[in-house]
Amino acid sequence: HLLKANWLLRAYLISPYPRHELFALKIIGEFKLTRFTRRVKRLMKKRNAPIASEAMYAYIKLDPQTDFTFLTKRKRPISKLDFYNFVQIAADYKNIDYSALVSSSIPMVSALGIRLANNHKVASLKIAILKRLEHDDENIRYEAQNAFLSLLEAEDVKLIFDKFDIFTSKNKIKILEML
Predict the structure, then answer these.
(1) What is the pTM of this model?
(2) Closest among 105, 169, 106 to 142, alpha carbons compared
């Protein structure tokens, strides 16, 4: 604001060059310039994947009370890089709608919801995670198995024996060590 860079950011946001948009989004996110929120929301829907990703990161930084449901409303998959960045960014967030993310029809968003529920120890989603142990998508299966083992309680031992065959060999060893 003191540098009077608003005009530059506005110009860069409508620039035909992706590097200008990326630069503007990075600045908007880092300095939490909330006056650009509407434009950032529009850029999240852009077909250019790097710009859409950077817009999502900026949006999360602009709204610290976000519940991450915008990922389900976007109706587009996220990349592995986005997945890991969201996991890191969401470490401090408390208003996440875990159930909406876990039940998402987008595989990577569902896997993200499971990972966040695991990281934040949300035991209330254990049944939803249990349903995902045998999912068709490998990422969801992997995250669900790890989350279920992390949220395991004494009454879940019977479930583990019933579902033992579906776990990966690494998780089978982990289960045997835990027993």
Answers:
(1) 0.90
(2) 169
CB atoms within 10 A of CB 69: 14
Handedness of CA 136, 56, 113, 67 (dihedral sign): negative
Cα(46)–Cα(135) distance, integer angstroms: 30
Q: Which two tokens stand for residue 81?
A: 């890089």
Helix/strand/coil (H/E/C) assignment for every residue in 114-178: HHHHHHCCCHHHHHHHHHCCCCCCHHHHHHHHHHHHHCCCHHHHHHHHHCHHHCCHHHHHHHHHH
Residue 3 has pLDDT above 80, yes or no: no
DSSP code, position 68: S
Distance CA 53, CA 65 (A): 19
**Rounded distance between C-alpha atoms, residue 13 and residue 39, angstroms:** 8
In the chain, DSSP finds a helix count (H) and a strand count (E) of 12, 0
The rounded percent of the chain whose pLDDT value lies above 70 is 98
Give the Å distances, CA to CA, from 53 to 10, 60, 71, 83. Answer: 19, 11, 11, 10
Cα separation of 5 and 103, whole Å? Answer: 42
Alpha carbon of residue 16 to chain centroid: 29
Contacts of 39 (CB under 8 A, 6+ apart): 13
